[in-house]
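Reopening this ticket.

The earlier resolution said the output was attached, but the attachment link was broken on my side. Pasting everything inline this time so it's all in one place.
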Amino acid sequence: MRIPSTAALSRTIPVALVFLTIVYVAQLAGPLRLDTDSASYLQIAASIADGHGAHPAGVPAFPVGYPILVAGLDVAGLGTSRGIVALNLAFIALAIASLWVVLRRGLDLGATGTGVICVMTLLSSSLVKHAVIPLSEAVFFGLAAASLALLTIAARRGQKTVLVGAILLAGAACSVRTAGIALAPAVVLAFTTARSRLGASLVVVAAAALVVATTPRYLDELTGGWKPGLLTSAGREGHDLLVLVGASIANVPQSKLDAVARFVVVIGAAALCAIAAVVVMRRRSLGPVDGWVIGSLLLLYIWPSDALRFMLPIFPFLLGYGALLARRWRAAAIGYATLFALLGLVAIAISTRITFAGDAFPERYAGGVLAPTYRVAWGLARPGDQARVESPVLDMLRRYDPDPPGRR
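Inline output:
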């Protein structure tokens, strides 16, 4: 196999980024894609916009950061499918720009390697899917990556004002998803002396204890996930972590996990070994990016969850770790990146086909599970649809996306 030169890759990256930008922006043309969680987020946003608070009756509790942003769009008259997806795309752009800073300065990768990782991130099937769904993933990704970029700059230059900005962004990330607490080790490692790191650690531990004490539902969720027994739960959570890591690296969509679970477990185990090797290599120069990776993986292990989207905010940095190890296996790295890209292009093609499905959208989106709800919301109901409606989804479609594709 002929290995592309670095110069050839450097010329290809801008073209790929422009192409992917156009494809992502094209998704603005599609109807609003909802599921149970996204409908709950929108119910909270609608309640805030209407002045009824962030805790509407009968709706699961979620962090309020993302609903507040959507409520702002609603109040401004931009609470539409396009407005909500544009919000996601803006934070994805922030994440990609931040990746450039973190990978170049935090992991000392070259421009070509950094560009390849940015392209691969945009080709992640998880990002392709969640860029167009009203969930907190894209916003959290952008805020976490931006915080990490400022932490990286602060660690290099010792600028306190930049560090304060990074901490504020970390707080904003926590308001969007509680997983933002995984930024705590990154904040600690942004300090440059042993004494300052110790002091930062004590502050972080005290703050975490205060959050748990004042928000008992987090502790309830954690203990609930480990109820079957310590050893049993430890094994199960370890297996789930291997699946998540392996699937994200292999670019396997959530819907295909069951079919390739054994395969991705092996990949996940190999990846965790590689991560450990990089941490050992960097033990004398650990920085914010290392704290973010380690903190996120620990959080994913101890917190009961198996959603692949939770890997998205750390996935690019795992690729960065891989790039540090792959410098002697360039052909293998290019082969992997090529296969990953092909799978990502398939995901983009499927998503774009759904976006421009027109009146066939209800049947094509999510396997048609919510087709009756969409048809009722758009005044296109068929016999029997009313009995199969998901009420929260219906209410949010009528508020944020009431028109069928043909009337937009």
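Reporter confirms the inline version is readable. The radius of gyration is 22 Å. The chain is about 70% helix and 0% strand.
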